[in-house]
Design goal:
It contains 10 helices and 16 strands. By secondary structure, it is α/β, with parallel strands linked by helices. The chain has 2 domains: 3-184 and 304-407, Zn peptidases (Aminopeptidase); 187-298, Alpha-Beta Plaits, CATH 3.30.70.360. The radius of gyration is 24 Å and the shape is elongated. The chain binds zinc ion (ZN).
Length: 408
């Protein structure tokens, strides 16, 4: 199969996939329950294969069977939106208080187009493809739920490769595909620290147990901890996103409690564990030094997005074979964002792929970025992404068939 022919074929889908994407853009839904979204997606892939729906969340797996037996490849597309009020001025802008500000509407349209390409060529497909339509990527662990429920096993065997794609409204020029071997995106989790003292009169803090000073020391000590206890070559980010203490109308009252919450980003499981250990003892000891008490809570964290080196090589080659030179670049550094595709990559070797979707009239270095209420994505990149993902599936299965033959 010539992958460049798939690209030409996918180009013929442009109007249809844009329509799918723009319809979905107007009905964004949040979290793990996306009934309208899933209904619209499934209407667009009707008849292409078996549909397996979850009974607990609005996920679905489209199982496309090849004409010849062989292994299974998994392609994943996330579907959820953000609680952001859209301010793009686009004719198809959302008006329901949620927004596809992370481009997951493009991902779904890519999934739909990819499914059509693969199903059209099922006669040449030497195995099975699972198209994952996943809710709840934005911090709801939708991928984890799908894996726990065995959605990746519906073909009767564990997939041998997994790929996912993410578009960006900035970061990269339009139409450029990027990935990298090893750690590509951070492990992400939260930490909440509470300091408990005893309240009193602001004029005489020595008669109370004042918790705000302990919290202030603890917050700055966390940054020193990052700088002094972690290797600069295996970075850690701790960013405090909220603080709470006292009452903004009063200065002469010492509150009983003070608390803050932070997001933690790491690039290795070792550091994820170390942050928990070091930060806990630091917070408790600082509190002790100030004569107050502290408690530290960590949320479950998404693992590091860790790409398989061979899968990354395959992406580089397949993008070039499909779309020509100049369309692939190695991502120079990992990204500190988190992504639950990591849960799938922990089970199945594969690669996550970034795709520049900066509008033609914007500069990718300054364009409003993903999650912004003004983020605009150029959906003309969708057909090329369909061709690349379909080609990756064919490439994996063709190679496996060749190997099986040489063993015989
Ligand atoms: Zn996203």
């Amino acid at each position: 199969m010539k992958y460049s022919d798939l690209a030409a074929e996918a180009n013929g889908y442009l109007n249809v996939v844009q329509e799918v994407r723009r319809d979905l853009h107007q009905i964004p839904e949040f979290g793990l329950q996306l009934p309208k979204t899933l209904e619209r997606v499934l209407a667009s892939v009707h008849g292409l294969g078996e549909i397996h729906k979850s009974e607990t969340i609005t996920s679905a797996v489209l199982h496309i069977k090849g004409s010849q037996p062989g292994p299974t490849v998994l392609l994943r597309f996330d579907m959820d939106a953000l609680a952001v009020v859209e301010d793009t001025g686009l004719p198809y802008a959302s008006t329901n208080g949620y927004m596809h500000a992370c481009g997951h509407d493009l991902h779904m349209a890519i999934g739909v187009g990819t499914a059509h390409l693969i199903a059209t060529h099922a006669a040449e497909l030497k195995g099975d493809v699972l198209i994952f339509f996943q809710p709840g990527e934005e911090g709801h662990n939708g991928a984890g739920v799908m894996i726990d429920e065995g959605a990746h096993l519906v073909s009767g065997q564990k997939p041998i490769a997994a790929f996912g794609v993410h578009v960006f409204s900035g970061l990269a020029p339009r139409g450029l595909f990027l990935t990298k071997p090893g750690a590509m995106m951070a492990s992400a989790g939260d930490m909440v620290v509470r300091f408990k003292g005893s309240g009193g009169h602001g004029s005489s803090p020595w008669l109370a147990k004042e918790p705000i000073s302990a919290m202030a020391e603890a917050m700055s000590a966390l940054q020193t901890m990052v700088a002094k206890r972690f290797s600069v070559f295996d970075p850690v980010v701790i960013n405090i996103g909220w603080v709470q203490a006292g009452d903004p109308h009063t200065t002469n009252v010492i509150p009983e409690e003070a608390s803050f919450g932070a997001t933690i980003r790491t690039f290795s499981p070792e550091n994820t564990e170390k942050v928990r250990e070091y930060a806990s003892s630091l917070m408790l000891d600082i509190a002790k030094g100030f004569g107050v008490e502290a408690s530290v809570e960590f949320s479950p964290y998404s693992p590091v997005v860790f790409n398989d080196a061979a899968a990354v090589d395959r992406v580089a080659r397949v993008v070039t074979e499909t779309l020509g030179e100049g369309r692939y670049m190695t991502l120079p550094t990992p990204m500190t964002g988190g992504e639950d595709f990591s849960v799938i990559l922990n089970e199945i070797p594969g690669a996550f792929i970034f795709l520049g979707a900066t509008p033609a009239d914007a500069d990718y270095k300054t364009a409003d970025f993903n999650h912004s209420n003004r983020a605009v994505f150029d959906d003309s990149v969708i057909p090329d992404a369909c061709a690349v993902l379909a080609s990756l599936a064919f490439d994996v299965l063709d190679e496996a068939a060749l190997k099986a033959k040489s063993v015989e």
